[in-house]
Structure formats: structure tokens, C-alpha cells
Predict the structure of Inositol polyphosphate-related phosphatase domain-containing protein.
Amino acid sequence: MEGFKLKKSKILRRILSNDNFDGGDHHQHSPEAELESSRLNRASADSNRSLSHHHDTKKIFVGSWNVGGIVPPKDLDMKDWLDTQNNSADIYVLGFQEIVPLNAANVLGPQNRKASMKWNSLIAAALNKRMPRKRVQDNKIAEHQKIYPMKEPVCAEDEHGQDFLCITSKQLVGMSMTVWVRSDLYQHIRHLSVSSVGCGIMGCMGNKGSISIRFCLHETSFCFVCSHLASGGTEVDRRQRNANATDILSQTSFPAGLQQNLPQKIIDHDRVVWLGDLNYKICLPDSATRSLVKKREWTTLLKNDQLKMELTEGNVFKGWQEGAIEFPPTYKYHPNSEHYFGCDQPQMSKKRRAPAWCDRIIWFGQGMKQNKYDRSESRLSDHRPVRAIFTADVKIVGTSR
């Protein structure tokens, strides 16, 4: 036992300084977030004038996709998932899981950011309706997708001619989250901050865990949580997922700001959305689950859905809400196929995984209305991407004359 503890201690010392570890300092912020924080916190200093306020609504697109470690092809059409043909949101929050394979090199080694750069390039192309940046030698993107640190206001017709700007992009091993805002809203976003929590291998590595991003739009605070929780279909695995969620809620923390009045915990924000591969399964025998999926009997299946049970019982997600699910389970498919894994291959019984709604989007608190909740049909990975569109109430303060 002492030998095991010594070996574990050596491993921990070796990886504590690694980007993939997020078990101690929960105030880790991206450089762009630190730059914007110093600029944006100054905006609240001029508060001596008489103020009036009114409310507005903004449309927010939230999407989550476990891409199974697959590098996106340069011609991947993102418009279907982002629904840019039919809807145009004010803010896009996109979370990915397994953006790189969850092998030892990626979990223990230096951060591999090539995949996230490629995804951001495709997102930029879809939102700004242009061709993705051309590739150069060594399969690298010609130019890193620029993140705007909000040092100066930007107008709708900025010099780059972009409709949407990326205000932050954060990666933790296989998880990645990126936030894009309409360029005319850019100057009204303040107090951007990022907090990551690793709760995977040894309870601290980033193969499982979360990335949380918070910001204020005008006078309303937003927090978005992208997570990848523990996998597996046993009762022990379900409890581990609950433990992951509890750790994320307790360990995620943001700075209070110069005025010491900014929310520091996830659920203290005005508008909160949690997205990701939450990995909750269906509590039925595999054969029964497959039969009900084939008959499209979603109501019966959802009565036995682990996350629905948690939302109802309030053990971990007390007060959280989820929209009606009217789409098939998002996992597990054969890649580039419409068939669930193992359904037609009894000889692979040891590898079979029953279909489940692993990929979810839930929200907390008032002031938000969900207008759409469905999935996209991209066959890139063994998961189908999910998306939700919210209308959020935003408080706007102006000077009275």
C-alpha cells in the first residue's frame, strides 16, 4: 500500500503543472479573459450619475457535441447543427467533448490545441458565412482564429467585417467551449472569466470534468457549464456522475471583481445553462431499451432516464430544468451510420451499449425561456449533437437626463 501511495504521489507531482490538471486552482483564467477583465471592470467605475433601466430579450444558441476524438474534415457543414439557415442568435455557446482522443498522451501530456483551432475555424466560417481558412503545410490552419480581448469597443461594421466575434475559447483535455457574440453586443460584455474543474483520473485529471464561462451582458450575469461526466451503465457509475456534478458545483469559482459584488458560484448567476455529455443512461434492460427505441416510445424511455429522475428527485440538480425531449437517443451510433451500435451485431454482445440520451442541455433559475430543443443529424461521431435556443431577459441600465 505504501508503495502505491508513493507511486501516486510521484505521478501527481509530475502532472500538477500540466494544463490537463484542474484540481487545485479554480481561478484559472484564459489570457483573453484576464485582458478583458482589466478593461471591463473599469466600465463599472463611473456609477455616480442618475441611472434608469429597462429590459430587453436576447436569443442564445447553446450546442453540445461529443465528437469522439475525430478531426473534422475541412468541408464539414456546420450550418445544420448551428441552424444558421433558419435562425440567427445573438450569442452562440458551443461545447465539445472528446475533441481529442482520451488516451494517456492527451490526458497526461501537453495540451493538444490543433483540433480546437480547426473547430473554431469551421464555426467562424458558418457564423460569418464565409469559407474556412485555407490549410497550409503540416495540416495546420493558416491563421489561428482570433479571440478579441475586448480592449476597445467594436461596432457592427468593424474592420474585419465579421458578424460574430469569438470572445473566449477554453480547452481542458478533450473538453472545449467557445463563445461567440454578435459584434454589436461585444462592447456590452464585461467581467469575462473562466473556471475549470478536473474530476477524472485520480479525481483530478481533466479527462472528465467541466469548463465554466461567465460574463455579464449589460447588467445581467450569465454562466455556461460544459461538462463530460463519468461513463458506465451501473448504479456505481450513476453515483459517480452525481459526485462529478457535485464537485463541479462546489469547486467552480469566479472572482468577485473590483466591486466585490459579482457572483462567484455557478448557481448565483442570473442565467445559467449546463451542457455536455452528462452520460446518464436509461434504467431498463438493454433489450427493452432497444425495443422501445425502435418503436419510438420516448415517454416510456424517459420515465426511466437517470437524468430525468435526478431532476425530479432533486438530489444533485435541485431546481434545474430541462425542456421536453422529442428526439431519439443521441448515443451510441456506428460512425457515419444511422444505426445504433450493437443492435444488429449479437456477436459483439460484450461491446454493446444500449441507446441513451447522454447529451443534454439543462438550465437553472428564472428569466430564460427555451424555444427549441432538438438534435442535429451529423454522422461524424458515435454521438448526435444537441442544441437549444433560449430567449433570455437582459437588464439594461442607462443614464437618465
